[in-house]
Each structure stands twice: as C-alpha cells, then as structure tokens.
C-alpha cells in the first residue's frame, strides 16, 4: 500500500515539475483556458454592491497611472 502511494506521489511530482519547466521555458504567464470570469462579463468575483478597500485602492492607482500617461509630455 505504501509503495503505491509513493509511486503515485513521485509521478505527480514529475508531472508538476514538467509543467513548471514548460512554463519557465516559454516565459509566459499562466492563464485560464476559457478566459475566466471576464469571459462571462463579470468585473469581479463577488456580487457585492461596493468593492472592498483593496480593490478601491487598485482602481484609484490605475486611474492615477492612466491620468499620468495621458498628461505625459513625451
């Protein structure tokens, strides 16, 4: 019983190592195959009416960056 467990564990480790090496060699970021929740037309995971504080900060930071890019001279 222990040998089956160890063999299975080793096989999983080899598969995970192979996948990680493939990602490292291609230098691509991981992404879902179907586009995630953005493909469903949803902006956020939860259905709460107001975003959390962390998301508000990210939105504000993105807006500041966009404004800086828009007002950039060169």
Description:
The structure is a single chain. The protein is mostly helical. The chain contains 2 helices and no strands. The longest helix is centred in the first third of the chain and has 25 residues, at 2-26. The model has no long low-confidence stretch (mean pLDDT 81).
Shape: elongated
Strand proportion: under 5%
Number of strands: 0
Low-confidence stretches: none
Average per-residue pLDDT, rounded, comes to 81
Please count the helical segments. 2
**Major pleated sheet:** none
Question: Which radius of gyration do the C-alpha atoms yield?
Answer: 21 Å
Q: Structural class per helix/strand content?
A: mainly alpha
Estimate percent helicity: 55-70%
List the helices and strands and how they pair.
Layout: H1 2-26, H2 53-70
Summarize the structure.
The protein has 74 residues and is an all-alpha fold. 58% of the residues lie in helices and 0% in strands.
Keywords:
74 residues, mainly alpha, 2 helices, 58% helix
């Amino acid at each position: 019983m222990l040998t089956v467990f160890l063999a299975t564990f080793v096989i999983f480790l080899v598969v995970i190592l192979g996948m990680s090496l493939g990602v490292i060699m291609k230098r691509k970021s991981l992404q879902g195959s179907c586009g995630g929740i953005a493909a469903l037309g949803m902006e956020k995971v939860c259905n709460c009416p107001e975003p959390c504080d962390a998301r508000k900060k990210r939105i504000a930071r993105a807006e500041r960056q966009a404004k800086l890019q828009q007002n950039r001279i060169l």
